[in-house]
Specification:
Elements: H1 2-24, H2 46-58, H3 86-94, E1 97-99, E2 117-119, H4 133-139, H5 151-154, H6 158-168, E3 184-185, E4 193-194, H7 215-230, H8 234-262
Antiparallel strand pairs: 1-2, 3-4
Helix pairs in contact: 2-7, 6-7
């Protein structure tokens, strides 16, 4: 009886400790820094989009593809939903090397076995950082970095999730938590063990508009850019929705007036 009296509290403590440890692996709710594009009248901050593109290009593109986005999508000319002019887009595209079509001899490799390349043009899509999935795994410890084209739409929490992941990666590890070999601690990631090393650091990019490049600023800007890649027509959709609402309100008013006129003399 004496053993049972002491054993029960010990078992309860062990069970509680196990439950707490299991709870520690659950991701924290995403941070909510606030976004210019939230709400029915939200819009993309063009300066943030340009800075976010710079962060993607100089940091994220080393591992993450943007397969569903073409260079001309970045253009705001001729009614486009982008945030660069056509000359700027042409210059951006030309800075990338794209796999070339076969030459006049039908060859796609040079005499050294290298893939023939050409400068990008606006019609091209962003080239992937790795030739194939096996190359991506070999360069990232067996993990395949996800394509970022639709990442904001593909993850619960959207831009909040992306912002939280990149700012939380590499956070201090709480006492008693075990980080797996080759992983990094991120309290906002499922299981809290993430394969991606901390992607951002202060002043990792130099913004052309003079904005101070803190980790939070870089994360906010790249999450804004990836929100745009996931839904570049968002502003047009909201504008159309607003016009439809105005039309329906006007139609309802006209129907009400018609109703009053038709039934005016009826008692």
């Amino acid at each position: 009886m004496r053993f049972a009296r002491f054993a029960l509290p010990i078992v309860a403590v062990i069970a509680a400790s196990g439950a707490a440890l299991a709870l520690d692996t659950n991701p924290l709710p995403p941070k909510q820094p606030g976004w210019s594009f939230e709400g029915p009248f939200g819009h993309y901050d063009r300066a943030a989009l340009q800075r976010g593109f710079q962060v993607y290009k100089e940091v994220c593109s080393a591992c993450h593809s943007l397969n569903r986005v073409s260079f001309h999508d970045l253009s705001s000319d001729n009614g486009g939903s982008g945030f660069f002019t056509d000359p700027q887009v042409k210059a951006i595209a030309a800075g990338y090397q794209i796999d070339a079509d076969p030459n006049d001899k039908g060859e796609i490799f040079d005499d050294k076995g290298n893939r023939l390349k050409r400068p990008g043009i606006p019609a091209d899509h962003f080239p992937p950082p790795f030739a194939n999935e096996n190359a991506a795994r070999a360069a990232n410890g067996g993990a395949v970095p996800p394509d970022l084209s639709l990442i904001v739409k593909a993850r619960a929490g959207g831009a909040d999730y992306v912002y939280s992941i990149v700012t939380g990666d590499g956070s201090p590890v709480p006492h008693g938590f075990k980080v797996q070999e080759g992983k990094y601690y991120d309290p906002y990631f499922a299981g809290r063990n993430i394969s991606m090393p901390p992607p951002l650091s202060a002043n990792q990019v130099t913004y052309s508009d003079g904005t101070k490049a803190t980790v939070d600023q870089e994360a906010h800007d790249v999450a804004t850019f990836l929100s745009w890649t996931s839904e570049p027509k968002m502003e047009e959709r909201k504008h159309l929705g607003f016009e439809v609402m105005l039309f329906l309100i006007g139609l309802s008013f006209l129907l009400y007036l018609s109703y009053r006129r038709v039934w005016r003399g009826v008692h």
